[in-house]
Amino acid sequence: MPDISIAVTDLRIGHFVKLPGSWKDHPFLFSSFRIKDEEQLQIIRNLGLAQVTIDPYRSTGNIPEPVTGEVVSATPSEDVAPAPAAPADPIRQQQQDLRRSMRFADRQFSNALSPLRESLGQLNLKPDEGLATVAQLIRTAAAHLTQTEEPIGLQLVRSVQQGDVLLLHSLNTAYIAMLMAREAGWSPLEIENAGLAALVHDIGELKIPTQISRKRVELTKSEINFMRMHVQYGFDQLSQLKAFSPEIRQAVLQHQERLDGSGYPNGLKGEQIGALARLISVADYYEEQLHPRSATRPGQPNQVVASLFKKADIWFDGGYIKLLIKVLGIYPPGSLVRLSDDTLALVMASDPQTPLKPIVLPYERGRVSEGVDLIPLQQDERQISGLCKLEELSQAQHDFFNLGKHFCYYYTS
């Protein structure tokens, strides 16, 4: 039985769907699969498709009537010449591709956030199920990374609603750490381990009273000491559950150690700190400093990078700092920049092939950011002439860029 095209509203659990495009255009690992639950069904319905192709032979349940009664043939008929396609506007097409990439990143991050919240909430009652969900999240993201041969950068995600800071921090750190591990030439299993270690590195904070862990002003000395216990709490919990590999559990314990011995909990120095823990500590510090819990304003990417450089080979491994810079680009996503024509812009995505020419969102007075064209500087005459400070922005500019939200990241190629 040949494939048929049906309205997306007629799609049901059990239908074997064939989505257009590749995995870059949707959050699923494969483009052809049988819909197994309501969550997958809703995700497909939210992709913006009017109709979708299904394979009736491999589907279960009722098969609806095809759209306009037409069948999607596996091989086009040679007797009917296809209608000539209308010439595409290359600029419009490019903008559609850029916006599609942004929507994909938004979906991927949001789709990971909800099950992560559930899995961490299940650790006490159903630890096996919770940890299995965590592992699957990372395996899916790691598979995308290892299956893509082309250079990959980071895409700024701005649509995520404000959520638990610990969840946002953990997921961001995991994505950054996996991309660093990929750039370091680590094996697929090592990339997966980097993601798992980063995702659970602060899991011990769940045992810290929320009046301390979520305190938004400076902590007292006793509160600082209590917070520092989170590394031991996390290590003990994962060890008790025999969760993940010993290397991952060690990284959870050691990610706050520093090369000069000034870290905690054991004051380890240099090579006493495992390689995975040294990589995680760089990604963790960068993300944490972007959103310091006791500060009223978030840190700016260039300031955090400058702070890291000052601590290279003192607190942090200089080699991993260089990897982070390679992943982030010279102007990391979230940077406020001034272009050579004096346009104010927000860096939306790093381009690993042209680190000085990222993709930016320009400020346009009186408009909303969703309606403004992005600028891929690689194809534009303008250049970045300098960085801007948050305090230099008007309230209108601040609102346009939606700077009150947590900076979140996903991959872009």
TrEMBL record:
Question: Ranges for the HD-GYP domain?
Answer: 145-340
Q: Which Pfam families match?
A: DUF3391, HD_5
Q: Where is this region: Disordered?
A: 74-93
InterPro entries tied to this protein: DUF3391, HD/PDEase_dom, HD_GYP_dom
What this protein is called in its record is HD-GYP domain-containing protein
Q: Which organism is it from?
A: Pseudaeromonas paramecii
